[in-house]
Amino acid sequence: NAGVTQTPKFQVLKTGQSMTLQCAQDMNHEYMSWYRQDPGMGLRLIHYSVGAGITDQGEVPNGYNVSRSTTEDFPLRLLSAAPSQTSVYFCASSSVMRSNQPQHFGDGTRLSIL
Amino acid sequence: ELKVEQNPLFLSMQEGKNYTIYCNYSTTSDRLYWYRQDPGKSLESLFVLLSNGAVKQEGRLMASLDTKARLSTLHITAAVHDLSATYFCAVVINDMRFGAGTRLTVKP
């Protein structure tokens, strides 16, 4: 059972570079989301999607883009990396947003911006 | 805007003791989630509470939900070292918001 798969696990970027964090789930979940985790701040929602072709902004969307062309994949794009985006990024999915089941989380991507 | 507050943020307790972690949220919701995170790891689901008065127990952990008070508690009974982790609550309204987490350390 793969669950939620995130790649890469680690990445170092230079300021101004762009990159895409990949997230894929094999559970046919409609709801997918991206969080960033910074020390002492819990998880903050960046973007989320309630189904293919539908995305919306969370708490901290600036500097990030998402798209949802398939049910399985929900990539997160950093347009022009900044040191403030150094964080651990988690992707999560659940059957629907207001699910009776918990979200499944990926293992995370540790991103450092120099 | 939905705000989720946990307290305490840090908790150091001795093995065998009991304690409660509190999760308050600002907007009415009928469901709340508790997760556990070990250092350097992902989040693991503990409980899903779906209605007012819901109570769930697993081992030494028991979670409850009072939707009228907008309050959930996570009670730890006779703590053991293996419970050392960070515990998060999360609430869904228009999207899912997490509390800042409670870092629990259980000492022998």
Shape of chain A: globular
Query: How can the largest sheet of chain B be summarized?
Result: 6 strands, mixed
Based on CA atoms alone, the radius of gyration of chain B comes out at 13 Å
Helix- and strand-based class of chain A?
mainly beta
Average pLDDT of chain B, rounded to a whole number, is 94
Count of helix runs of chain B: 0
How much is the average pLDDT of chain A? 94
**How much helicity do the residues of chain A have?**
under 10%
Instruction: Determine Rg of chain A (CA atoms, Å).
Output: 13 Å
Question: Any overview of this molecule?
Answer:
The complex is a heterodimer of chains A (114) and B (108). Chain A has strands at 4-7, 10-13, 19-25, 31-37, 43-51, 54-57, 64-66, 76-78, 87-94, 104-105, 109-113. Chain A has 114 residues and is an all-beta fold. In chain A, strand 5 and strand 6 (54-57) form a beta hairpin. Chain A is globular, with a radius of gyration of 13 Å. Chain A starts with a strand and ends with a strand. Chain B is 0% helix and 57% strand. In chain B, strand 4 and strand 5 (43-49) form a beta hairpin. The mean pLDDT of chain B is 94. Chains A and B meet through strand 5 and strand 10 of A and strand 5, strand 9 and strand 10 of B.
